[in-house]
Amino acid sequence: MILAAAMNPEALSGAEDAITRLRRGDPDALTAMISRYQHRLYRYLLRLVRQPATAEDLFQQTWLRVMERIGRYDARRDFEAWLFSVAHNLAIDFWRGKRGDSLDAADDSGELSRERLEAGDPDALEQLLDFERGAILAACIHDLPAIHREVLTLRFEEDMKLEEIAEVAGIPLSTVKSRLRRALERLRTVIAARFPGRRGV
Amino acid sequence: MNEHESIVEMLALAAAGALDAAEQRRVDEHARECPACRRELEIWSVYSLGLGRLPQPAVPAQLMERTRARVWQERAAVADRRWNELMLTALALFAWTVGLTFWFLFRILTGGALVIMGANLVRLGTWSAVSTVLVWLTAAVAALALGKRRRELRRVS
Q1: Shortest Cα distance from A75 to chain B (angstroms)?
Q2: Residue A43 — φ and ψ, nearest 5°?
């Protein structure tokens, strides 16, 4: 519903108007833009960093950066992709100061998993969806590397096209494709490992 | 890699709607004839469906208000810094102008010699050194005082 509102032509023209007013430093325009994107942007950041306090801090930093750079924003670019790329870059900056989980360093090697997939149970997910569905799926996603969590949330929750994901993450289209495939395969492996022996779609 | 194997590689992306039209057609045609791939495609479709229906995190209460407040606070701080820099520059220029004007006046009035403690103050080098120290001290103190006043006024309002 949120996405539908964002894709609505009237809403889009409202967004353009708000961007114009944002350039002039209009406080109401900032309120309107935060209100429009807060659910999606917060969700994206939370999926990415997993900690609510960090997600909120990055959310606020994203709008600070938007206000700093809105004057240089090219109106021909998709504002949403630009906004999410600002958030993406801030998340990378956040991880630079940390060890462990990282958007850059996460496993994207591509050596997955034909064997692992076949060893796992291919039908486990549908059983799960019958009773605990989303919560368990979300928990499994939680265990994936950041780059995989990111591509999954951008594709399936933000409903972004691969080109838009490439713009947000600053990577080539071919990398988005391979990353998305690996993320899905890895998710399936995680689910199969967590729930061995469940069968039957 | 034969056709079946290459199609297997594409099934996850097909269910995710991430293939171009030609690739999608290839997958669909193959899946019609291949029960194993059809079955795999169905499983991947369940994943795609589930991923689009994850529980949604609640946005923290008053996130928007806190964000807006932080943005304006930060912008006000930046504006303060810029204003202070501007004032510092303006005051320094003003002080230099006054200093040079007085130098000309003193030269005319004293006939080019005003000796204090063995130094001729009306010599350009001495006058410049003394002026520079006075100018920068005055400008810095004035800018800081004005900036402080601005911040106090903003707090009150």
Answers
A1: 22
A2: -60, -45
B-chain residues near A31 (CB < 8 A): 64, 68
Using an 8 Å CB-CB cutoff, list chain B residues near A63. Answer: 67, 70-71
DSSP state of A105: T
State whether A60 and B51 contact (CB < 8 Å): no
ipTM score: 0.75
pLDDT digits (tens, 9 = 90+) for B43-92: 999 999 999 888 889 999 999 999 999 998 998 888 888 888 888 788 77
pTM, two decimal places: 0.73
Strand partners of residue B119 = B116
Instruction: Give chain A positions within 8 Å (CB) of B53.
Output: 133-134
Structure tokens at B156: 């009150």
Token pair for B49: 């469906």
